[in-house]
């Protein structure tokens, strides 16, 4: 009897070793695991006491996931909307755990592309933009900075951390700043199809007259994301500065609309960014043929697009702030800030 119990225990340990080896050699042995994977299921089936025996036997530290458990009856933020009616999360400080997200992202070994246009005088913004991005943007992950410019020789050399590259893409300029701003849609759609699709998983498309001021990490990534405009996140629908002239392709009727999104930071997978930029560019060209330019150029077209192709994630104004708007209580972090600029000195130069 004693012998048979011992024998059964022995068999049990052997079985656990088998399951554990399958888990380790399947290549998913990291601190935080995807709870839906079958490997993880096997892992959780291992009984507690056996884990210790295993640890001793194999001298391997088992994967661990240590953090405060989510509380069903205690939402992390009660002062802001955390989810849209179409189940897209709205990203605010305090609503997510970077460690879990970073661990998940690391397993996929993806590269993020950050696109920025510095045409004509706007090259002056590049130094601060790149230096602050090295400190705060996607820290610990692989990043390609795609700099679209007509002045490649004026792109500053900035020290980059491992796994991060600057790619300078020479493009044409246009006389009017509005045209330069709008043509970004055309260039982004072209390069998404030609190049980005082979090099990165996600694109983050931003204005250059900006600086990073706090962490902007993988929490922003999703198939398609937009950002709440800092001037309108509490505004009524009727106050949104959508294009209101029916003659424009960007027209939004007064009884439609969810949010007013900012043109200066959006993104998603290369495929989704391609679809968005292509559609916006085509709409801009139709407007041009009809002799009309939307009130806020490509930002108006972006807002129209997001109305009918809902973003899968929305960034709070933490990700696009302007200090002229003060420091409201709900704003726990100012991650990406507008750099004040002298329009007369910088535009059309
Ligand atoms: C913070 C903000 O309100 N952003 C929006 C607002 O931008 P802004 O008023 O900030 O426009 P802007 O002057 O920053 O132009 C948009 C971007 O186009 C690029 N650029 C523009 C002109 C130029 O000569 N060279 C050049 O490189 C550059 O990347 C710049 O950041 O309105 C624009 C068009 O109406 C866009 O919708 C911007 O996203
Ligand atoms: Mn800008």
Mean residue pLDDT: 88
CATH class wording of the largest domain: Alpha Beta
What's the architecture of the largest domain, going by CATH?
Alpha-Beta Complex
List ligands, each type once. uridine-diphosphate-N-acetylgalactosamine, manganese (II) ion
Instruction: Work out the number of β strands.
Output: 10
User: What percentage of residues falls in helices of 4 or more residues?
Assistant: 25-40%
Q: Gap between N and C termini, in Å?
A: 92 Å
Number of helices: 9
Number of domains: 2
Q: How do the strands line up in the largest sheet?
A: 1-9-7-8-5-2-3-4
Secondary-structure map:
Elements: H1 2-25, H2 38-45, H3 48-58, E1 90-91, H4 98-108, E2 111-118, H5 126-136, E3 142-149, E4 164-170, H6 177-199, E5 202-206, E6 210-212, E7 224-227, E8 265-269, H7 270-289, H8 297-308, E9 313-315, E10 336-338, H9 343-346
Parallel strand pairs: 1-9, 2-3, 2-5, 3-4, 7-9
Antiparallel strand pairs: 5-8, 6-10, 7-8
The chain binds uridine-diphosphate-N-acetylgalactosamine and manganese (II) ion.
What does this structure look like?
- The protein is α/β, with parallel strands linked by helices and 349 residues long.
- It folds into 2 domains: 2-58; 90-346, Spore Coat Polysaccharide Biosynthesis Protein SpsA, Chain A (Alpha-Beta Complex), CATH 3.90.550.10.
- It is 36% helix and 14% strand.
- The chain has 9 helices and 10 strands.
- It has helices spanning 2-25, 38-45, 48-58, 98-108, 126-136, 177-199, 270-289, 297-308, 343-346; strands at residues 90-91, 111-118, 142-149, 164-170, 202-206, 210-212, 224-227, 265-269, 313-315, 336-338.
- An 8-stranded mixed beta sheet has the order 1-9-7-8-5-2-3-4, covered by helices on one side. The protein has a two-stranded antiparallel sheet with strand order 6-10.
- Helix 5 links the parallel strand 2 and strand 3.
- Helix 6 (177-199) packs antiparallel against helix 7.
- The chain is globular.
- The N and C termini lie far apart (92 Å).
- Mean pLDDT is 88; it is low at 1-9 and 26-49.
- Manganese (II) ion binds next to loops.
